[in-house]
């Protein structure tokens, strides 16, 4: 064993450093579901900056230092407060914000987001025919993102008002009617934040012919 380690110490050091890099500095995150459609698609692989908010002990949620503040509109990877599953959603509300939703309209601190129609698309369903989705540009506090809603589906379109606790954040999927987000899993404590998604590294049509979607390579996070 000693001889094996001695002969391969360069490779072992590389693996160690690579592991530290992925667990403490930067990572990539495949998108497995459509909860962030249309911003992110199944088959996208996003680059995640793990040092955007916290420095952590590798492989833990122990925060050693805070290095940046989460901002409204960030696309964030985090561990689910309910079962630890890694999720990716958009941060919509900060600690102290009072948030509610009325018939899909997001309202923060008494100010409602504004909405503009941006077309339609067909939303694929696992065990049923596709349904029509409405694409909408949602603008709040000067930040605009494209979301979609699906009127034909049963969904949680009203909640709150709720106050976001100290050191916690509210996350919503851009695909509002098909996202298990803070409406279901609750607010996300800061120590469960993994990092900020910066851009799409690569993308492939995993539900079709697996052809690369070259136009998405290198795209900044919308």
Automatic annotation (TrEMBL):
It is found in: Membrane. Pfam families: Peptidase_S26. It is a single-pass type II membrane protein. Its main location: membrane. It catalyses: Cleavage of hydrophobic, N-terminal signal or leader sequences from secreted and periplasmic proteins. Gene3D superfamilies: Umud Fragment, subunit A. The keyword Calcium does not apply. GO terms for molecular function: signal peptidase activity. Residues 12-199 form the Peptidase S26 domain. Its EC number is 3.4.21.89. Keywords: Hydrolase, Protease. It comes from the Bacteria. Belongs to the peptidase S26 family. This is Signal peptidase I. It comes from Massilia frigida.
């Amino acid at each position: 064993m000693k001889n094996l380690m001695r002969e391969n110490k360069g490779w072992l050091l590389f693996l160690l450093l690579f592991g530290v890099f992925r667990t403490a500095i930067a990572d990539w995150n495949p998108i497995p579901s459509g909860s962030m459609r249309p911003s992110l698609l199944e088959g996208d692989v996003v680059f995640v900056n793990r040092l955007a908010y916290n420095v952590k002990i590798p492989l833990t949620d122990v925060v050693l230092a805070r290095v940046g503040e989460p901002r409204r509109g960030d696309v964030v990877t985090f561990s689910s407060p309910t079962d630890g599953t890694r999720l990716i959603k958009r941060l919509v509300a900060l600690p102290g914000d009072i948030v509610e939703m009325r018939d899909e309209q997001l309202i923060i601190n008494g100010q409602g987001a504004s909405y503009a129609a941006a077309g339609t698309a067909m939303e694929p369903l696992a065990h049923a025919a596709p349904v029509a989705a409405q694409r909408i540009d949602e603008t709040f506090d000067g930040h605009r993102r494209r979301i979609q809603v699906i009127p034909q589906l049963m969904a949680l379109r009203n909640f709150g008002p709720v106050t976001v606790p100290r050191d916690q954040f509210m996350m919503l999927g851009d695909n509002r009617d098909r996202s298990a987000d803070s409406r279901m899993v609750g607010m996300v404590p800061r120590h469960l934040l993994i990092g900020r998604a910066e851009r799409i590294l690569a993308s492939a049509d995993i539900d079709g012919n697996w052809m690369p979607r070259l136009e998405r390579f290198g795209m900044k996070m919308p």
